[in-house]
Amino acid sequence: MKAKQRTEITYEAHETTVIRYGRGQSSVYCRQCGIYTANLSVAQASSILSVTPLEMERSIRDGQIHTIDDAIDPLILCGNSIRLLLLGENTDGEAAKLGE
After folding, report:
1. Tens of pLDDT along 21-59?
2. Residue spans of beta strands (DSSP E) within the chain
3. Cβ-count burial of 56 within 10 angstroms (0-12 exposed, 13-18 middle, 19+ buried)?
4. Which of 21, 59, 77, 91 could covalently link to 25 via disulfide, CB atoms 3.0 to 4.6 Å apart?
5. Would you tell me how many other CB atoms lie within 10 Å of the CB of residue 74?
6. Under 8 Å between Cβ of 76 and 56
């Protein structure tokens, strides 16, 4: 009797998000991160993270997403804190998930 041959296929997928700004895009200083970073509106950050406004609000309140205090616009967000959430890290270097 012939032995059956088994083939196992493993599929791995990776996703990369690239955020580009036009000329004249300014950077802002984030006091929590201690660096100059891109500034994002709530709508831009919501779109990048694919989350609802309620989840954005919760993450801002919990300190996962930093706000820029001295901004002229109503609410400007720190691009670095958004980047860290995309990478699954907290600003403390720990694992982070949006809304937790």
Report:
1. 666 667 888 999 999 988 888 888 888 888 888 888 888
2. 27-30, 35-40, 77-78
3. buried
4. 21
5. 7
6. no
Q: Which residue(s) pair with 36 in the sheet?
A: 29
Q: What is the DSSP letter of 95?
A: B
Contact between 73 and 43 under an 8 Å Cβ cutoff? The reply is: no
Asked whether residue 12 carries a pLDDT value surpassing 50, the answer given is yes
| Residue 50 to residue 30: CA distance in whole angstroms | 23
- 73, 75, 81, 82: CA torsion to nearest 10: -90
Residue 95 pLDDT greater than 60, yes or no? no
Please identify which residue in the block is written with the tokens 């660096």: 35
The answer for residues whose C-beta is within 8 angstroms of residue 95's C-beta and 6 or more apart is: 88, 89
Separation CA 60–CA 62 (nearest Å): 5
pTM score, two decimals? 0.65
Q: What is the largest CA-CA distance in the chain?
A: 78
